[in-house]
Specification:
The complex is a heterodimer of chains A (about 120) and B (about 120).
Chain A: E1 5-7, E2 10-13, E3 19-24, E4 31-38, E5 42-50, E6 53-56, E7 65-71, E8 74-79, E9 88-95, E10 107-108, E11 112-116
Parallel strand pairs in A: 2-11
Antiparallel strand pairs in A: 1-3, 3-8, 4-5, 4-9, 5-6, 7-8, 9-10, 9-11
Chain B: E1 3-5, E2 10-14, E3 19-21, E4 24-26, E5 32-39, E6 46-52, E7 60-61, E8 64-69, E9 74-79, E10 88-96, E11 103-105, E12 109-114
Parallel strand pairs in B: 2-12
Antiparallel strand pairs in B: 1-4, 3-9, 5-6, 5-10, 7-8, 8-9, 10-11, 10-12
Classes of the chains: A mainly beta (about 120), B mainly beta (about 120).
Chain lengths: ~120, ~120
């Protein structure tokens, strides 16, 4: 298995532009998590999906952020409009369903480094 | 809400030495998981070791072991015979059994292994 795949790996954009980050979870995993890593706040959960349904989006900072999971193999995190304070590394992670082997472990993608100028 | 605290922002040791990274957490749950993740300069989050709270025996993975003190809510990581490749950020993380089962991370400890 290729692991969790994220694209792009790096994104540089200008303030006000729309940014879309993409994630492909490990096949067969039914939980997907989006995390953000910054120097100031460390690693924090933005949103969590279970079976493609958003379960907990309390970490989404504001309405400029939205996330979707149209099917079991794809999720997007969109920022519109982007601001310099959104600059961070965004990680996607997936986890097997409960009761399955490894269900207590989250597998992380390589992250997307976003820079908003 | 759960919190995780790593009180050592940076540590530095010589190659082959043993080093212990500290982590404390706060929760009202009785059963949960604790993890140590390694993040090298490549940014990849790599699971180092995990501990299930209902297991009294401390987890070990080759050179990595933990000292889990449930009553004290302490979960330290010991790296024996440290290697240059162990240089990285290390994050302690908590995951509850109930609810969203999200990972709650500490602020991290930057570990440098010197030759």
């Amino acid at each position: 298995d290729a692991g969790v795949i994220q694209s792009p790996r790096h994104e540089v954009t200008e303030m006000g532009q729309e940014v879309t980050l993409r994630c492909k979870p490990i096949s067969g995993h039914n939980s997907l998590f989006w995390y953000r890593q910054t120097m100031m706040r460390g690693l924090e959960l933005l949103i969590y999906f279970n079976n493609n349904v958003p379960i907990d989006d309390s970490g989404m900072p504001e309405d400029r952020f939205s996330a979707k999971m149209p099917n079991a193999s794809f999720s997007t995190l969109k920022i519109q409009p982007s601001e310099p304070r959104d600059s961070a590394v965004y990680f996607c992670a997936s986890r097997p369903g409960q009761g399955l082997a490894g269900d207590n472990e989250q597998f992380f993608g390589p992250g997307t480094r976003l820079t908003v100028l | 809400a759960q919190t995780v605290t790593q009180s050592q922002p940076e540590m530095s040791v010589q190659e082959a030495e043993t080093v212990t990274l500290s982590c404390t957490y706060d929760t009202s749950e009785n059963n949960y998981y604790l993890f140590w993740y390694k993040q090298p300069p490549s940014r990849q989050m790599i699971l180092v070791i995990r501990q299930e709270a209902y297991k009294q025996q401390n987890a070990t993975e080759n050179r990595f072991s933990v000292n889990f003190q449930k009553a004290a809510k302490s979960f330290s990581l010991k790296i024996s015979d440290s290697q240059l490749g162990d240089t990285a950020m290390y994050f302690c993380a908590f995951m509850g059994i109930q609810g969203a089962q999200k990972l709650v991370f500490g602020q991290g400890t930057r570990l440098t292994i010197n030759p």
